[in-house]
Amino acid sequence: MNETTITSTGYFSGNVSAGTSTIAANINPGLTLQGNSTINYSNNLGLSQAVTNSNNMVRQVRVAVFTVKRNKENKIVSAEFTKELWVEIKNGSSVELAVAKELDKDFDPANTVIKEMYSITF
Predict the structure, then answer these.
(1) Do β-strands 112-121 and 5-7 pair in parallel, antiparallel, or remain unpaired?
(2) Consecutive H or E run containing 27
(3) I need a surface site. Which of 4, 6, 76, 112 has the fewest CB within 10 A?
(4) Domain assignments of the chain as residue spans, ordered by start
(5) What's the pTM?
(6) In this predicted model, what pLDDT tens digit does every residue of 66-96 receive, in sequence order?
(7) Is pLDDT above 80 for 14?
(8) What are the residues facing 79 on neighbouring strands?
């Protein structure tokens, strides 16, 4: 088994790979993350996100859809809110595909941006 240890004396934000699992975490001072998602607290500071996702889990995802305008260099110069909705994601399915099924048939994928706001895993 691979073991990854991170001890934070300042602030750590990033992804930690340990064996076959990847943990996205924001670690505050005094929090130590060791091994395959073992968390040891040295104070009351919390872990903002630690996700373990097996193949049979279902997620309900809250997304926001925006229509963007781009300049000649293809940089986004403005964004307009289009829609907010919940979609169900099963077994590694794409959030973008699930949202595209809910949008009007004439939407422009080049100018549509989908952002995940939060999700609930069952």
Answers:
(1) unpaired
(2) strand 21-27
(3) 76
(4) 5-41, 58-121
(5) 0.53
(6) 999 999 999 999 999 999 999 999 887 899 9
(7) no
(8) 68
